[in-house]
Known about the structure:
The model has no long low-confidence stretch (mean pLDDT 96). Helix 1 (34-49) crosses helix 2. The protein is an alpha+beta fold. Strands 1-4-2-3 form a four-stranded mixed β-sheet. Strand 2 (54-59), helix 2 and strand 3 form a beta-alpha-beta unit. It has helices at 34-49, 67-87; strands at residues 19-24, 54-59, 95-99, 120-126. The protein has two helices and four strands; from the N terminus they run βαβαββ.
Amino acid sequence: PPPPPPPPPPPAIKVYEAREFIVYFEFDQSTLTTDAQAIVQQAADYAKEGNATRVVVVGHADTSGSAAYNIRLSERRAKTVADALAGLGVSGSILAVDWKGESAPAVATGDGVKEPLNRRSTIDIAF
Length: 127
């Protein structure tokens, strides 16, 4: 009789590497859109599946509005994302939250510019 077929190869081991997810917000908002919720879900799943050791959420704002207002807005954005991650099972012991206001834009603009790419929270996941 012919020899038996070779055994199937072992499943590939998924390697988890440090990764950043970006959650965008509507103008002057800190609530999660449907798209933003999907990104937060992906980040939470990635962090949990890979047993992340640290998840850092940083909130940002565009330059529209005062610097003081934007600090508070970016804080709300960061906390909204962190709360959502925690609600999806990411351990609070590995979650850190920070906010930058308008001081660290993704796209450099002048003052008073409504730049959608600057209205964000980043989720940095480390292993």
